[in-house]
Fold each of these.
Amino acid sequence: MVAIRDLGVDDVDALVALYQHLNAGDAPPTPAAIQAAFTHPGLRHFGVFEEGSLIASCNLMVIPNLTRGGRSYGVIENVVTHADHRGRGHGQVVVRHAVQQAAAADCYKVVLTTGKKDPAVWAFYERCGFDPSDKRAFVIRRPAGGLTTSSRLC
């Protein structure tokens, strides 16, 4: 039986283990990062469980906004399904759940980005209802020394 629910601090070990299927070799989060991730207003983590094991997850951040009549928007990140459970719809279940929760929070849109260059991953997000032609994302990554206001930035 498959169940979906909000994740809490008690789920951290299972979630960090699952994240190895997203970014293998990632260092584990610090206790401060765990605390911040589970107490940040508007940030929710969702998990799909099969026979008590966490097999898929994503998070949703609902961000207050002053445009669009003051309606918030949502950002979905860290979408992952355990490698042994892919291709069975669990990823779609967790992403659709996050989108439903964003709708319940009256978000006017939901944004999702991916760093994956695999067209199959893109097709997955399209099957979940995301339009790849609607927006363009630009990213600045934090270099080892941290973000600065160097001449390379605006």
Amino acid sequence: MDDEFEFFSKQENRTVLNSFRTRLDMYSESDEFAKTRNSYIRLVVNAISRNPKEWDRNCEINISWMGEHFIDEISGDIDFSDKNKMDIIFSICFRLVFEYYLSVKNELSNDFNRLKDFALNNIGFFSDDARFQIDYAFRDMPVAIFKDIANSESIQSIRNLHQVSEYVKNTIDKFSKELAAKEKRVSDLQESLSKYESAFNFVGLYEGFDELSKEKKKEKLNLFRALLASGFFCLLPFLCEVLFIYKNWINLDIYIKAVALSFIPMISIVAISIYFFRVILHSYKGVRAQLLQIEIRKTLCRFIQNYNEYSFDLKSRNSAALEKFENIIFAPIVSDEENLPSAFDGLEQLGKIFQSVKKGG
């Protein structure tokens, strides 16, 4: 490598690094993943700021590939809550660390080893672009670095080519095995989460029906109270008439005309009260029927599990296997409206009363 190569050691780039580090230190992360990711970004930026010449010397290839892009990413006003941007910055830092690891004889410090483990263990949580860069660093970058070195003019001898190749191959195999193990673990977790998602969907469906059931029970109670009140009002005019006659029985002949005349408004009030009694009674029966349908749905939700998984398999063999279940669960909740009294029923009854009184007169 060229000992005179400078990038991070340039004053303008050091200024950018220090400015980015200061602003990142002032930012408060919203979740644990972002907090850990940003702490490793700080670790790399601090290390580069302390020894820029050493990182220039040991990361020349990635600097030539992505150096300017890295400086652009951390320059200017940065939205540290932008997950995709911060994931990309982490992936570039990781590539620099990985090349640094390949370039030095000594092992990485514990902090950088933990950075590597964090990238492996959480690769599924990074954005697509960042995950591609991390995967590339593990799988293909060592070979690409070696190819770049092998074809550079600075190589004077290839006496140790076999050892370097073997070392790179072993490193790739090691990280490939670790990555494969972590990917399998992520896949297993994804499968488990899929099963839990199906179960929770049915729990949510049951809770939805349960909330609807509570509302309908309140409505049923209010209608029952209204039903009792309307029934009382139906009897109230008769009770008042009987009470009046009872108290004035001795002088009934004086009030007989008033009593006779009061029958017409009394009967009208009774007819209207009976009409509203019928309306409320019909609504009460409708709500009771709806409650029965909701309870049936709640009962079905208790024992139907993994519907999303086996419904496709069952329907492929028997298209009508779950038809009844679906018809009940997803059918609209209805009430019987056939016997709902018309708004003119009460008027018709009053008309008949007046006609009979007129004929009698």
Amino acid sequence: MTVTPFRIAVPDDVLSDLRARLTRTRFTTASDATSWAAGTDPAYLRDLVAYWADGFDWRAAETALNAFPHQVAEVAGSPLHFIHLRARRPEGAPAPLPLVLSHGWPSSFVEMLGVARRLADPAAHGGDPADAFDVVVPSLPGFLYSGLPQGPFTRRGVAETWHSLMTGTLGYDRYGAFGGDIGGGVTQWLGALYPEHVAGVHITSAVVSADFEKEPPTPAEQTYLDALAAYDIGDQGYSEIMCTRPDTVAAALMDSPAGLLAWIVDKYRDWSDCDGDVARRWDRDTLLTVATLYWATGSIGSSFRQYYDYHLNKRVPRVTVPAAVTLSNEPAFKDYPKSLAERVFADLRHWNTPERGGHFMAHEEPDQVAAELQAFFGPLRKTD
């Protein structure tokens, strides 16, 4: 398969149109006196939109992103964007173990860049160069520069595409996999489908995919499941509309950059480990880099496809390859019992609840995640 180098280059007219739209934004009034209680705070959004229109330097962000080796290849019949970082290791050192890092929604490849740097070039971050990994960071199908799949978007389908990328396109016979959210589901499927090629799997979002018909939940597990259901009542409105009427909301977000920004920032605040203070975790340039990528590619609607097709996902079979969980510190996984992960992973070798880093853990805590991956995958470099 042909792999083509790729550079991000947003046309000037797209940026000019974006600024013009931002300056014409009509803002709503708050529905609740408590800030953020009813969604993205209008006052916060007004300030962030003003900075996006007159202050944010996209070209500087673009240059920083293009410092990474972007590539595009046709995989499973659709264009797939990915970053491929080769390990910087001592001459004569054993071949590095490749790792594929998978993001979720409303995220992007940007989430994984800090971790990817630390893994591919540990010496530059105070580590041992012998610990370097090859790192592959794909954009999920329908996200940014990757095309939608030819069939439904399922986590199993993405795992099949990732395996084709890693083994067929890039020529790796054995690799490890890491991810959270959608990427965590993809990672589990990689371990379930390709145990002869996947050295191990590491996730941050310990999703529930156990078969409770065969073994009912324990009291601790049921307590967690009840708490999760209660949390979802207040949080799942966004997913309900994207599961049932994605094109309706996408029409608004494709036309209004302020609306797009509100939709994305709401989740960056709610799901990250920021205690409700967006600025504690996210500087404005980071948020606007992600939003500009979604805007320039017009991919917010296609990123909803995995929600619309969600009902087509099947339960992940029991995963037998070595597994690790570094549990996300976000409301959905508060008090998540280890036993639920053990129902899915037959060989759970690493379990950690650092209580730092939320839904976007790799972005929020890159040092922590890189250390966790090095600790887990280091011993797996050689076949057991």
Amino acid sequence: MLKTICYISDSQNFKSEDNLLNLYNKAKTNNLKHNITGILIYKNGNFLQVLEGEQEMVDNTFKRISLDSRHKNIIKVINTTVEQRIFEDYNFGFTTIDNRNELNNLNDYLEWLKDADSKSANKVIAMVENFIGRK
């Protein structure tokens, strides 16, 4: 069974771009290894991450994240089973958004997703759009 978790959190210890880049690379490697798709966005000291995959893998990944001292005030905003992944086709399954070009690509992808008219996908799209300040 597939599951999606979307959370937001305040970041800790990300005062430098190197720290952020290391986190992005580690997240991408771990998520690909566990067949988790989704996105990780950092903006103004906060993270928004969407995790999609097999239920056990997503739950275990979120548990590790919630115990990670680099995050505080973690709020799980979506926690649901899904029939299909939303971000599977986006940038080979998992990406981190950390510059204007990637943000523009994400905006294009969100527009394309809206055509699918999936209720659960639209909830995730709305969360991402709110986080990046797009409407």
